[in-house]
Amino acid sequence: MFTIKTCGTTLKVLLVKLVLLLSCIAMQSMAAEKSSSIQTPALHAPAALAQSLLLQNPHARTAISLNGPWRTIVDPYENGFYNHRYLENPNGYFKNASAKSPSDLVEYDFSKSPLLEVPGDWNTQLERLFFYEGTVWYQKSFSLTKNSHKRYVLYFDAVNYEAVVYVNGEKVGRHEGGFTPFQFDVTKQLQAGDNFVVVKVDNRRERDNIPTVNTDWWNYGGITRPVTILELDRTYISDYTLSLDLQARALGKSRISGWVQLSGDSPKGNTNIHLQLPELGLDSALDVDSSGKASFSFEANPQRWAPQNPKLYKVVFRYGSETLEDEIGFRDIRVQGEDIVLNGEPIYLRGISIHEEKPGGEGRAWSEAEAVKILTMAKELGCNFVRLAHYPHNENMLRAADRLGLLVWSEIPVYWTVQFESEAVYQKAEQQLTEMIQRDKNRAAIILWSVANETPNHNLRFTFLKKLVAKARQLDATRLITAASDTQQTVGGAKKIDDPFAELVDVIGINTYCGWYSDKPSDCAAMRWQSDYNKPVIISEFGAGALAGLHGDKNARWTEEYQDDVYRYNLEMIDKIPFVKGMTPWILKDFRSPRRPLPEIQDYWNRKGLVSESGERKQAWYRLRDFYQGKAGG
Ligand code: GCU
C-alpha cells in the first residue's frame, strides 16, 4: 500500500493491485517471447519482494569505497556509548559532535583523533593496541552525490568482533561475528553532500561468543575487511546461485540449475531478468515469481572445474540499469564409500592449513594481492587443497582459490569448548554458518563446509553439531560437510576413530599431534588407525613447532630437524591408512597466538608453520613438497 499526499489530505491508494494487474498483462505478452531453452515457473506478478540477508557479489556493483584512513577513539570503558548509569547515552560519540562555542562541553573530537587504516586490525597498526581488547570507535566523513532513484547499502566485509553502526548520528544496526559480511540499507540516513559513518567496534572475547574466550590465534580487532557503499536500483538483483543440477546428475545427464532474486521495491512492469552464459550459448529472459525470484534449469555440459583445470564461466545478469557479472565454475563433488570423488574421479587432497594473516608479516590479510600470494605459496608446496582455518576467510581468498585451482575446506569458529548448552550461542553459530554459505555458495573451489574444530565429545555438543549440519545441508545440498576432531583414543595400540559426531558428517576431519603433544616422532610410523565409519578421513592437523634457522639434534624441540622428523614419521603413518583421502598439515605459516609466549622461540608466535612469518622455508617444507610431488605422480 502506498500513501500519497495530495490537496493537503492524505489519499491512501491500493496501488499494488493496479501494478499487479498491469504487470500481469505485460508479463503475459512477454511470456510468449521467453526462450524455450530454459525452464521457468508459471508467471505471477511480484507483490512484496524477498529481502536478501546479504547481497551476492557486492564488489561487482556500483560502489563508493570507504577504505582508507578513519579517525579513531580508543574507549576501554565504552564511555562513548554508556552514561554513568550504564545506560545507552543518546549523545554518544556516534553523534560526532564538536564544540560550537567556547563554552560548549564536548569531551571528544574525532577530527583531532588518531587515524587507523581500514581495512586493518588495530593490533598491528599501533604498538599500544597490540594486546588491546575492548572498544575502538571509527569515524569516516565523505561526500555523496545522492541519486533519489537509487538505493544505498552500507556493506562491511567483516568487523571483529561486534559492530554497532551509525550513519549521520543515527544507529542503523548491529552485527556480531568477526569473519562474515553484513549490510544495512542506509538510503534514508544518507544525504546529498556531506555524510559520516561511525562504527563502535568491540573485540572483547566472551564466554558465550563464537568463538569463545580461548583460541590459539590472535584476537585481531577492528574493521578488518573493506567497507563499501553500494549504489543500487530501487529494485535490484540481490542474490543468485548456479550449479550443476544434482537431479540431472543422478539421471546421468548434465544440466545447470539455479535461481536469481530481485529485492527492494516491487518491480514496476519489467520483471525480466536476463541471464547470459556466453561460452555456453545461453541468453535467456527469466520471469520472476511473486517474491521476485526466478528459478531456471537448462541443458549444458560445461568443462568441469578442477584443480588442474580451474575453468570459470562468465555469468551475466541484467535487470533494469544493472549489469552484474560473475565468474562461476561447475564441478561435481561427492563421497563414495571411503573415497572423495571430484567430477567422477577419486581424488587425494594434498592440502595445508592456513590462518588469515598477511604473508611475510602479521596482522589480518584481506586483499586480493595477499590472497594470491598466500595461495601461490600453497601451490608451490604442491597443494590442490587448503583448509581455511578456523573461520571464514575474506572473499578474495575464495575467489583466488577459484582462479588458482585450489579446493577449499571452509569453516566457522565453533572452536574447542563453546557453550553447547546455550540456544543463544547456537544461534550465533548458525548465523555465521548462514552468512558464510550465503556469501560463498557460488565458489566452485569450496567442497567442504566445516562446522567445528576439536569440540568435546558429549551429548550437548552432538546435538549442537547435529543442528548445524542440518542447517548447512538445508542451505547447500551441493557440498560435503565435515568437522575436525581430536577425540580419538588409543585402543589396543591403535588410534580409534569412534566419535559419534562422525555419524553427522560426510568427511571426518582428524587432528592428531603424534610426536608433538604425544608419543615420540619415531613412534608415529608404526601407529595403526581404525575407523568405525565407512567414510573418507582427512588428517586435518598434524605438525610440530620449529624456529626458522634453529638447527640441531633432531631430538631437540624447536629445531627444524625435530619438526622435519615429526613430518617424516607422520607422513609415513598417514600414507598407510587406507581410509585417509587427504591431509592439511598444521600449518603453512607461523602465526600470532597469545598462547605461545616462550621467549626467544615463540614470543607470541605459534611456530608450527612450514614457513616463518617472514617467509623463510623450514626443512619440513621441502619434505612435504616432495611427498606431494610423489602423491601427484610428479
Ligand atoms: C589445535 C588447534 C589449532 C592449534 C593447534 C596447535 O589442534 O586446532 O588451532 O593452533 O592445535 O596446538 O598449534
User: Which sequence of strands runs across the widest sheet?
Assistant: 23-24-25-26-27-30-32-33
Q: How far is the N terminus from the C terminus?
A: 67 Å
Query: What best-fitting shape do the alpha-carbon axes yield?
Result: globular
Largest sheet: 8 strands, parallel, barrel
CATH topology of the largest domain: TIM Barrel
Just name the CATH architecture of the largest domain. Answer: Alpha-Beta Barrel
Count of distinct strands: 35
The CATH top-level class label of the largest domain: Alpha Beta
Fraction of helical residues = 10-25%
Strand content: 25-35%
Structural domains: how many = 3
Structural features, described:
This protein has 634 residues and is an alpha/beta fold. The chain has three domains: 37-233, Sandwich (Jelly Rolls), CATH 2.60.120.260; 235-331, Immunoglobulin-like (Sandwich), CATH 2.60.40; 343-631, Alpha-Beta Barrel (TIM Barrel), CATH 3.20.20. It contains nine helices and 35 strands. The protein has an eight-stranded parallel barrel. Strands 5-4-6-11-8-9 form a six-stranded antiparallel sheet, with no helix packed on it. A four-stranded antiparallel sheet has the order 3-12-7-10, with no helix packed on it. A hairpin with a 2-residue loop joins β18 (313-319) and β19. α5 (423-440) packs parallel to α6 (459-475) and α8 packs parallel to α9. The N and C termini lie far apart (67 Å). The model is unreliable at 1-17, 22-37 and 40-45 (pLDDT under 50). The structure holds alpha-D-glucopyranuronic acid.
